[in-house]
Amino acid sequence: MAQKELAIFWMRRDLRLEDNHGLAKALEGDYPVLVLFIFDRAILDQLPPRDARVQFIWQELKQIKEQLQAKGSDLLVKYGEVTEIWKEILKSYSIKAVYANRDYEPPARERDKKIYETLKAQEIPFKGFKDQVLFEKGEVLKDNGEPYVVYTPYMRKYKHLLKDSHLEPYASADSNHYAQLKGLDFPDLESMGFEAFDFEYPNRDWRKSLIENYHETRDIPSIRGTSRLSIHLRFGTISIRALAKEAKQWNDKYFNELIWRDFYQQVLYHFPHSFKDSFRKEYDQIKWEHNEAHFKAWCEGKTGYPLVDAGMRELNATGFMHNRVRMVVASFLSKHLLLDWRLGETYFAEKLLDYDAASNVGGWQWAAGCGVDAVPYFRVFNPALQLKKFDPELKYVKKWVEEYGTDAYPQPIVDHKNARERALDRYKSALKSD
Asked: Does residue 400 have an active-site annotation?
């Protein structure tokens, strides 16, 4: 019996059926659409048995599977090595076209290149679309055609180019165009080596009042002054177009934060070396310390600096850290402790629910002074002054550092004044030698 001809929509960091660009285009095509998700062993095998992000993805996929089943279709979920999974799928189905939304991280681009070649060998088109950002690649450039490496002029050009059409949703075609398949694979967490556990994920609904007041509340870590939508933007469980359309009307400061996401994505696209190395290559000449005890104290939130410790303990317990505190924590590691920013970036990659390589690398390099539009190397956050300014009543600190104020709380592992002078000397020496 001849196989039914199908198109595949390959779902990756766009876990939703509504307002999904690539899916909408697939549904407009000539063939019934089979929706696919692949749990990539190359990524999952590096994670601990209890990983809140894997569980989040699995739970979201379960809901999508139910939505598709209500349409008479189903979701195909696979676990394994991506190239091998695709070879298996091509043997099992008569695939006429593959659709996906683009991912701009270097490993994802390399993965997609391999799949493109695999599909091309069988004369199957692989069509990519823009979905997780409003502008991509070379859509926002300087007048001379070069990419921006400073945020403010990028933001101005971005707003100048932005049209209402960029914020309009992509309508799904008739649900009858989903492939009418049933009983498709959906591995449970245990079969992939993970444990299910209770975890409270941030709500995906945004409140107008919170976004309207964002500019007044965003820097206070002790209150719910930010939207906590970053995990949903990261995995695409909400549409950036839908959020940006309302943010643009409600609060320009919040809208500017969404533009930062696009900015860091285009930086990583144009300068892929910054994925692992300093954007400003001269900063890779810095002689970093190799103090395992200091790094361990930083990871565990036992540095003797209350705001740093509260942030790290919040991260370890919840997978979230307030953005103001992220800046202080990152500056402390790279300048007070003079530890390589990549150590911190890697630790955040392991812990953050909303981990996004472009934003995380961009933020860490900003704090270390070695990235695009970076804070000058001679600016060193004073954790004590930051605490006094943003948590004066110690509400945030006391929530996360229960022993604060007792003999059980550690003394500072470095002296601020001495650490600052050491950092300035070390940075100056590296830049001078370069």
From this structure: no
Name residue, tokens 């812990």.
351
Q: Which two tokens stand for residue 430?
A: 């590296």
CATH for 5-131? 3.40.50.620
What fold does the segment set 275-433 form as a domain?
DNA Cyclobutane Dipyrimidine Photolyase, subunit A; domain 3 (1.10.579)
Domain boundaries, the chain: 5-131, 132-168+208-270, 275-433
343 is in an annotated binding site: no
Phi, psi of 7 (to 5 degrees): -110, 150
Q: What is the DSSP letter of 406?
A: S
Decide whether 5-131 matches 275-433 in CATH topology: no
Mean predicted confidence (pLDDT) in 208-217:
89
The pairing of strands 75-80 and 94-101 is: unpaired
Does residue 203 carry a catalytic annotation?
A: no
Residue 333: DSSP 8-state: I
Would you state the pLDDT for residue 76?
A: 98
Question: DSSP 3-state assignment of 348?
Answer: helix
206 labelled catalytic: no
Residue 86: active-site member: no
Instruction: Tell whether 261 is in a known binding site.
Output: yes
Answer yes or no: is 274 a known binding residue.
no
Own/partner long-range contacts of 47-54 (Cβ < 8 Å, ≥24 apart): 47/194, 49/193, 49/194, 49/195, 50/194, 50/195, 50/197, 51/194, 52/199, 52/201, 52/319, 52/353, 53/235, 53/319, 53/353, 53/355, 54/189, 54/192, 54/194
Q: How far is 394 from 397, CA to CA, in rounded Å?
A: 5
Catalytic, out of 260, 291, 316, 382? 260
CATH number for region 132-168+208-270: 1.25.40.80
Contact present, 269 and 361 (Cβ < 8 Å): no
pTM over cut 0.90: yes
Rounded CA separation 304/322 (Å): 19
The per-residue pLDDT for 89 is 96
List CB contacts of 394: < 8 A, sequence separation 6 or more. 306, 387, 404
> Which H or E run includes 119?
helix 106-120
Q: Say if residue 214 carries a ligand binding annotation.
A: yes
Helix (H) or strand (E) holding 40: strand 33-40
Note the pLDDT tens digit of each residue in 25-72. Answer: 999 999 999 999 999 999 999 999 999 999 999 999 999 999 999 999
Q: Which of 5, 136, 246, 257 is catalytic?
A: 257
Q: Does the annotation count 288 as an active-site position?
A: yes
